[in-house]
Design brief:
Helix content is 8%, strand content 32%. The protein is mainly beta. The N terminus is likely disordered.
Length: 277
């Protein structure tokens, strides 16, 4: 009984250590036991570190590691150069869960990390998720086509400044735009300014388009990039026609997205099992 109890305690401690054999262990690719080269620590300055399916900033998002989280590093490859909070480097680390993180955000003791075999730099493409999610978890502070704002083509979600904005569904980025009458989206706007500030549009299947407005700085994605459900698009701000930090979220039933094809995001998201607010 004592030995069994000790084994159970040991297993609990290993799980609690958070050595990212993966934050999303339930969905990580199945793999045989791997030899870990060393343990690193995510150092991002506060935000979560993205794990990706391929060693590239545009790779599909697989999950995140909290700032300060431990990482089980298996091997490295040279790929896209990233300027991070720890270093500027083109090294990417493959974790024990077969996902990738930029070594630019990894603090680690000096230990030899082997070069990954060429076959490990790609991962079979994931099954396209049919799930829709909230772009931010926040209350609705202004509705769609209200009597006082009949041209308000979306809803305003009262998220705090720098809240991550996630893709409500997988698709392709079709617009990344600074739209403000001042031509400056890197500062807070006001009601006297027209335009959506920094915003992103993502086109989904059936020609649906979602729009995400008033970001605090240039979005984290580029036109033509494929994004997965939940992938980071940018951060909440107050650029453009805005009196305070929030996400203005629109849904359109066609492309290009226009006032004529705007649809109520509240009803749309309820129908897809991801109610806003």
């Amino acid at each position: 009984m004592k030995a069994r109890h000790q084994r159970r305690i040991a297993a609990t401690l290993l799980a609690a250590a958070g050595l990212f054999t993966g934050a999303l262990a339930a969905t990580a690719p199945a793999a045989a036991a791997v030899k870990v080269a060393g343990v690193g620590t995510a150092r991002t300055g506060g935000t979560a570190l993205n794990m990706r399916l391929t060693p590239a900033a545009a790779g599909r998002l697989a999950g995140t590691v909290p700032n300060g989280g431990k990482l089980s590093i298996v091997c490295q490859v040279r790929a896209e150069t990233i300027r991070g909070t720890v270093r500027t480097t083109n090294l990417w680390d493959r974790l024990a869960n077969n996902y990738w993180v930029a070594d630019a955000y990894v603090a680690r003791a000096v230990f030899p990390i082997p070069t990954c075999p060429k076959t490990s730099t790609t991962t079979p493409p994931p099954v396209v998720s049919k799930t829709w999610i909230q772009p931010v978890a926040a209350s609705i502070v202004s509705g769609f086509h209200t009597p006082t704002r009949p041209t308000h083509d979306g809803v305003d979600l009262g998220a705090a400044r720098n809240t991550p904005i996630r893709a409500a569904h997988g698709g392709t980025v079709i617009r990344v735009v600074c739209n403000a009458s001042t031509n400056n989206c890197d500062v807070d706007g006001s009601r006297s300014i027209s335009g959506c500030g920094w915003y992103v549009e993502v086109q989904h299947e059936l020609n649906y388009v979602t729009r995400y407005c008033h970001m605090i700085r240039r979005p984290s994605v580029v036109v033509g990039q494929t994004v997965a459900t939940g992938q980071l698009l940018g951060y909440v701000g107050s650029s453009g026609s805005s009196s305070g930090p929030h996400l203005h979220f629109e849904v359109h039933t066609g492309t290009p997205a226009t006032h004529a094809n705007a649809t109520d995001p509240i009803r749309f998201m309820i129908a897809r099992g991801a109610p806003l607010g």
